[in-house]
Specification:
Layout lengths: L1 H21 L2 E7 L24 E7 L3 H10 L4 E5 H9 L6 E10 L8 E5 L14 E4 L5 H12 L9 E4 L5 H6 L5 E3 L7 H6 E6 H5 L2 E9 H6 L1 H18 L5 H12 L3 H5 L18 H13 L16 H9 L2
Parallel strand pairs: 1-2, 1-3, 6-7, 6-8
Antiparallel strand pairs: 3-10, 4-10, 5-8, 5-9
Length: 332
């Protein structure tokens, strides 16, 4: 009887262990801008995600910016997150995340034939050249952010520095249009306001991010090496499904439905998004999910030259693209 009882207990333990192993891995993914990184709307077409609910469960989380994503990754409250090229370097240097790895392209600025960020002034503004910004007030989303670096880099090319030749004020992207139209600032980082017809009617572009920085690896998705090593199979399945979903979003045949998904989620007018979202007027996203590591390396070096980073960041050391390459092969 004793041996039978022990056998039953062992069998139950094995069964429970197998059941636990069969549970999908919950992968917490942090996003910032639904129309940009797509994190929060990624699986609106859940039927395309072949592994969702099987090997993994997708748990999207919204953050107000990439710095809080860094914190959440560092504390273990997030598994995968979006990083701007600026927050990526700062995560490695300041948050000591030496094990941070790039796993997926978010989007890139300045790729030929696609959108590049605009920095705008009012139509009736006397500012016609970069030099005309001397003594003026410039709005950026925050010191060291991707758009902030573009402004500083462009003005530095014209021998102008913040506080000495012009003044930078920090304004949230949703409020950029308002502060420009109210003439509280002289130039804004248009960001996600580019599709707003009121802004388009009242303002003009002074320079672009491509002119300031060349190609920018604006956003990457990253995770810590330990998480990737432990959960390689599930993460590869996730990346495969992400690539499949992205191809849906950028397929012209599905354009209206794709834009409607984002419009409903963000509560923005369809017409404001339809003009540019998921078209050549949008940022470039590699169809196979591969980030431009050479561009990212150049971006990190610029941050160092401008004093935002103290050390050189070896981007290739902090990238693991083997998972997304495997994912892309599956859907060729």
């Amino acid at each position: 009887m004793r041996s039978q009882l022990v056998g039953t207990i062992v069998a139950c333990a094995i069964a429970l262990g197998n059941a636990a192993q069969a549970e999908p891995l919950k992968i917490r993914v942090g996003g910032v801008a639904p129309s940009g990184d797509l994190v929060e709307v990624m699986f609106a077409k859940a039927a395309l995600a072949r592994h969702l609910g099987q090997s993994y469960d997708y748990v999207p989380q919204h953050f107000a910016g990439t710095p809080p994503v860094v914190t959440a990754i560092a504390t273990g409250d997030l598994d995968i997150g979006v990083f701007s090229y600026s927050s990526f370097g700062l995560a490695i240097e300041n948050a000591k995340l030496d094990d941070l790895r790039v796993v997926l392209d978010g989007f890139q600025d300045g790729v030929a034939g696609y959108y590049t960020g605009e920095f705008m002034v009012l139509n009736d503004s006397p500012i016609r050249r970069i030099e005309d910004l001397k003594g003026k007030v410039v709005a950026t989303p925050g010191a060291g952010t991707a758009l902030d670096i573009a402004v500083r880099a462009m003005l530095r090319k014209h021998a102008m520095e913040d506080k000495r030749d012009y003044t930078i004020v920090e304004i949230g992207l949703p409020n950029m249009k308002a502060v420009l139209l109210d003439k509280k600032v002289d130039l804004i980082s248009a960001g996600t306001s580019v599709g707003d017809p009121a802004l388009r009617a009242a303002a003009r572009n002074l320079f672009t991010q491509q002119e300031a920085l060349g190609t920018t690896q604006m956003i990457v998705l990253g995770a810590r090496a330990g998480f990737l090593e432990k959960n390689r199979a599930a993460v590869t399945d996730l990346l495969e499904d992400i690539l499949r979903e992205r191809r849906f979003y950028f397929d012209p045949a599905h354009h209206q439905e794709a834009v409607e998904i984002v419009a409903q989620f963000t509560k923005q007018p369809f017409a404001n998004l339809d003009r540019w979202l998921f078209t050549k007027g949008d940022y470039y996203r590699d169809p196979n999910g591969l980030p431009n590591l050479d561009a990212l390396q150049a971006n990190e070096e610029l941050l160092r030259q401008m004093g935002f980073l103290k050390t050189e960041i070896d981007v290739k050391k902090h990238a693991d693209l083997s998972l997304v390459r495997e994912a892309a092969k599956r859907i060729e």
